Protein 1
Amino acid sequence: QDADLESHTDVLIVGAGPAGLMVAYWMAVYGVRARIIDKRGTKVFTGQADGLRPRTLELFDSMGFQHRVIHEGHVAVEANFWVPDENGKLTRQGPHCSPKINESNHHNMLLTQGRIERFVIDAIREYSDLEVERGIIAESFGYDENLENDLDAYPIMVKLRTLSDEEANPAHLITSTNGSGRQMANGQGRGSLLPDDWDELIQKSRHRKTRTETVKAKFIIGCDGAHSWTRKQVNIPLEGSVTDHIWGVIDIVPLSNFPDMRRLGTITHSSGTILVIPRERNLVRLYVPVQIVNNTSDTRFDRAAITLEMIKARVRNIMSPYTFDFQICDWWTAYQIGQRVAPSFNKGSRIYLAGDAVHTHSPKVGLGMNMSMQDGFNIGWKVAMVAIGAANPAILETYTPERHPLAEMLLEFDRLWSGEFTETNEDGVSNPDKAERMVDVVEKFMDFADGLKAYYPAKSRRNSTCFCTQFDSWGANPPLQAEGNSRWTTRLFESDGLFRIIILAGDVRVEEQKKRVETLGRLLAGMDKTKISPLHRYVHIPGYKDQIRVVTIHSAPWKEVEFFDFPEILRPFDPVMGWGYDDIWCDGFCTWDPHCQGKGYEKWGVDRNRGRCWFFGQTNIFGWAGELEELDDMTAYLDGVLVKMPTPEL
Ligand code: FAD
């Protein structure tokens, strides 16, 4: 055995699934000294999650790879519910489409988790050489609480072990054959929804000649799935229950005469309901109720007893009289539904948990990957900014209060939605209310699931560092003043590490309003020595001259106001890049973009004449809002969030 190595890192991320990769993205953006490890020898390639909600797509858009999802993924906005009529004949109810379909330019999409992981990994590479270290398992943990409040100290100690190829890539995780000789991935060997194999790997690796390393870290973020090793080290339980329903999931290329085989929907029969999910590459995912176990004492089921043939037989039974078969099975697994959540997503101020590590539920609501990525996004930028000394550590206290209530909502949604699938009607009598009830459940949770609203708690902005407040996260798309381009406002909030002040400048044709904007401009430029400008006041982030970018959206018709009418601080000049043309926008009508109707102010509830001022954090959600004259108030708020430079450049 090689001698133990010892090393230091500021942030250690355990697990490189969707949550861990999102955290790593922020480490890359802010240039944090970080490491991300995963016990698996490879990323996911097939199976697992596939549903992408608009809110997640909005984040991808801000990270710059939404176009790749659109190119490869499958849009699913309409659902059909097939239920037996009074004669027991399967009939289509629908299509049902979201009543809020036009609220956004993003729609629900389906694409395998493996591709999403690829896109995030590529986005990380755009910023840094941070790479996932694979085939490495975290296996022992120490924490010195006395060092918790010393930001220069490394209170966390984790022992890592490099696994052999065989351990990191167990054969059963990769392929088996489906009887026709084709290889396919079988997800039964690992799982967040199934008992995982990490402790078995630890046992095995102890007997191998592999390298070990002790890493000392300032922060640890456990993104290591439902059987989270990190969560167990800090004794945070998962609370909730496991139900007695066993489900099969298959990703197949169907051979069937069922008319809606490539449409999103459900098929209900006397003994249960199948969920049909069309996917990329002619694949279709089916969630299939396989059996109900008698769980009086043991809550685990024997997953080895579930076979692909068994799942196929259930599909045939439920879809009858339609035919069903396949030659290609890309991936399949079986799981038991459980709804569980951790009471806290952090332990003190140095240890955080994200994703399946803190909430598990059935995959049928299509939110597992979404919630996990949103957790990772939320804690990622906060820890990264604190680690580089640019943000007040108190912002870390907002993580659990912001994300935990959403996990509770997720579980409630899942309980109701899963109930619709497991309910059986043994007599085979038709249930005309079934489709209506399913639509009701979806609509009840739509704002939450699709991210049409942010539910982060609003707090007093003066006295608290709470960074977010409730707000419709959807933007409108104003055209660019100087170029005539049109863009959704959510795209204006790129996840590039900068914060944004959004000045809704109002109708600047009116002299009085123009003066208000000019006064604000002088203030921001630091020309009014009696006031403090938030610009150039806080610690810079690497690669940028500043930490805050100012974006202006006025409400006058673009032809009646010129770009150069605005104060220079709002359209700054760079000797190389020229004027800040994409800093001035107009909430006006755009002839070629039907979404661009000049109604943004109305949507945001802002007076078109007087405007308003907002401060946005990294979540596309504003943390402060006020009048154009209230810059001092905004600065006071920011002083609680960001770290001031030793000598402010006023
Ligand atoms: P994960 O994706 O589970 O990632 C955790 C990572 O941590 C893994 O890569 C693991 O190798 C690593 N890890 C764990 N312990 C250690 C350790 N000690 N040291 C180093 N690394 C470690 N969702 C759906 O929406 N639909 C589905 O049909 C669906 N099916 C699924 C089937 C399976 C078999 C699994 C596992 C998950 C499924 N999910 C499904 C859930 C979805 O994949 C998760 O919600 C999502 O991946 C959660 O992301 P995460 O990053 O939190 O955790």
Note: The pocket of flavin-adenine dinucleotide is lined by residues 14-20, 37-40, 48-49, 51, 113, 137-138, 187, 191-193, 198, 223-225, 229, 249, 333, 355-357, 363, 366, 368-369, 372 (CB under 6 Å).
Protein 2
Amino acid sequence: EMDAATLPQFPMRRRCPFSPPPEYDAFRAEQPVAPVRLWNGQKVWLVSRYDDVRQVLAEKRVSNNSTHPNYPITYEARGTVKGMLASDGEPPYFLHYDGDKHFEHRRMVARDFAIRPIKDMEPLVQAHIDELIDSMLDSPEKPVDLVRAFALPLPTRIISGMLGVPYEDMKRLQEATDNSSSFNQDPEEARAAVIELGQLIDDLVTAKEKSPGQDIISRLVVEQVRPGHLTRSQLLRMIRMLLIAGHETTANMISLITLYLLENDDLRARLTEDPSQMTQAVEEMLRYFTIAHLATCRVAIEDFEVAGTTIKAGDGIIALISSADRDGAHFSAPDEVNIDRPGRDHLAFGYGVHQCLGQPLARLELRLAVSTLLRRVPTLRLAASRDSLQFKDYFNGLQSLPVTW
Ligand code: HEM
């Protein structure tokens, strides 16, 4: 047995905001299943190669149950949040359910996020994008923070519309969900944010219970809660997950792609000239940034082997998708952005049964947001020094992105 105190500390920090920590290269080369230590002293396995990450995420012998005592909690504030939401002993979200129960709960909302209905939302998403850009261009003051003016409000508006959140509550919602999940976040602040958003969601559900509308929440109340397939508290947490999952992630991608294009004139010119290449550019950016780099934690429920190492029942595992997506054994020249790369088998949305439910929506929002920004604000430029930009850590992203034009 290894002494946890001598193990490398995880998470490791990025030195360059566009790249995963350099330690991952060494892990892939020398120790593809490496023991590391978390903030609470727990030893967990880091799995870093593309094929192995896929194997773990497709494993039947792992659980995503975050209430398991050995489930990896990557930083303290996150533990606070998960603990609070799991107060009835259930995992906080269906993301953390396993097996049939996971399948049943995911199915309750899967059709709303499927490719077809999301494609039909294109005109609506485009209208929100144009409206946000209109108000940005009308702004009396410059520079403007692209994160607050565009990247965050867009996914908030879209998911709010789908869930039937009234327009007046949207600002409150954006503030409550904008908890900038950070390794340094104060656990008390995290607690306050959980309570604030919980109150908002509870009020919303109460309103839908009284007079259901055409939205997802109303349908869940009528079709799932009333017949007893879903408890009210499960519904509240399902809504919380849908609000949070698609909000900061999409916003971070919009701001990171924008920054990348502001610094890479050739690619920007190419995409401005031929917006039809935006689909593949978004895909490559998803791989390159793999922003949800700590999302895919698991715990083994039976012994199994990965790359020659036996992982024992009860061991915590982190399947490092951001390392997998820079694995040179799978992607040629993995540290370069190459929008002509064939295939879209990156793991930025995860893999297996928990693979991101919102990917058609995320892809739509990203493609339209970035291409509209290039088209309508062709002189867009950074209005701060590169060194002054503040990056996020739990999800890779930008705290703010001052721009002018
Ligand atoms: C799951 C990434 C946008 C809803 C996941 C997972 C990843 C991910 C990596 C898997 C977690 C795991 O296996 O433990 C992303 C990224 C996004 C994004 C990078 C944006 C670029 C969205 C959007 C929604 C959404 C827009 C819609 C509301 C979900 C849900 C799950 C999930 C509900 C859980 C699925 C399940 O357990 O069955 N996401 N996501 N995500 N995502 Fe996303």
Note: The chain has a mean pLDDT of 92.
